[in-house]
Amino acid sequence: RFIMYQQGCSAGGMVLRLAKDIAENNKGSRVLVVCSEIMASIFHGPSENHVDSLVGQALFGDGAAAIIVGSDPDLTIERPLFEIVSANQTIIPDTEMAINLHLREDGLKLHLDKDVPRMISENIENILMKAVHPLGLRDWNSMFWIVHPGGRRILDEVELKLNLNKQKLRASRRVLSEYGNMISACVLFIIDEMRNKSLKEGESTTGEGLDWGV
C-alpha cells in the first residue's frame, strides 16, 4: 500500500504513473487507485488581507473517485478503457511559491499566486513536446485531452497557447463547472466524463473516437 498526500493538484496524474509502474513490474497485478479530497477544510471567512484565499474557496470542491490500473488484461473477462503508454514529469524552476497550502490549527490556509495561469501557459508546450514527440505525435488537435481544471483561466490559457479546438477541453470544463477543482480526484472524474460522453455519442474509442490523448 502506498499513501500519497500533500501533493496538490499534481497527485491525480502522479498516482496514475505510480500505478502504471507497479502494474507493469508485477505480472497480473491490478492496482486500486483511490483519490479523496476534503477541500471544505480550506474554508474561512473572507479577509481583505488574503483575497487569494477567497478565490480558492470559490474554486475548490470535495470529491472522491477510484480507478483500477493493470497490465496484460484478460480480454475474456476484462474491458480496458484506456491505456497508459508513457508518463512524464517536469518541475518548472522558480515556481515553488506559486501555490502553497499550510496546515494550521484552524484548518488549511491556501495561497494562490495570480501568475499561475501564465506560468502554465509559458511552459505547457515544451513540457508536452518532451512527453509526446518521442511517440511521433505532433498535432495537438489529433488527440483527446484530459486536463486537470485548475481553474477556468488555466484552461483558457492552455487552449489558447496550443491553439486547441473549442471542444477539446469540454470534459475538463464540465467537471470544473459541476464539481469545482477537486485536486487529485479531478483527473479520474474527467476520465469518466469522457468515457460516458464517448459512449453516448457512439464514438469508436473511449477517447472521443481518437487513439491518442494527453
TrEMBL record:
Gene name tied to this protein: CHS
Family statement drawn from the similarity comment of this UniProt entry:
Belongs to the thiolase-like superfamily. Chalcone/stilbene synthases family.
Under the heading CDD domains, the entry gives: CHS_like (cd00831)
In its UniProt entry, the species of origin is given as: Dahlia pinnata (Pinnate dahlia)
Q: Which UniProt keywords apply?
A: Acyltransferase, Transferase
Q: What is this protein called?
A: Chalcone synthase
| Segments forming domain Chalcone/stilbene synthase N-terminal | 1-73
Tell me the PANTHER family matching this sequence: HYDROXYMETHYLGLUTARYL-COA SYNTHASE, POLYKETIDE SYNTHASE, TYPE III, THIOLASE-LIKE PROTEIN-RELATED
Q: A GO term (biological process) for this protein?
A: polyketide biosynthetic process
Asked if the Swiss-Prot or TrEMBL record annotates the protein with the keyword Transferase, the reply is yes
Q: Which SUPFAM superfamilies match?
A: Thiolase-like
Q: Name one GO molecular function term.
A: acyltransferase activity, transferring groups other than amino-acyl groups
